[in-house]
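Quarterly update from the structural biology core.
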Amino acid sequence: MTYEHINPEELGAPRGWTNGMLGPKNGRILFIAGQDAAEPGGEVTTEDFVEQFDKAIEKMVTVVREAGGGPEDIGRMTLFVTDLDAYRDARRDIGETYRAHMGKHYPAMALMEVKRLVDPRAKIEIEGTAVIQDFSA
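Predicted structure, tokenized:
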């Protein structure tokens, strides 16, 4: 699926995100709930920030695939982190992990530091929106 990237020149060139993503006609919107690093049993089992990021983004892409799409169909992501310094310190490894799941597709993104998440061991949660092309329309 192809989004139209909306990056007004007056905002400067984005790096690692896109300012706006316009989905195609005949697309179905998928709202992806916040995904953390919890295993199927419901518990976060690692304290490592990058491992938690890897698990959370993997789970988000799994939801998109179940709906019939792929990582390139994700138009918006919001990352919630409990420690902005830990995120900054791990940016290089996070970037490698991100590209392993998303390739060079950079949707509109926001990052927020929050006091805590539902699971007390969770350090990151990722939620997003995808548009899945509906070829039957």
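The chain is about 25% helix and 30% strand.
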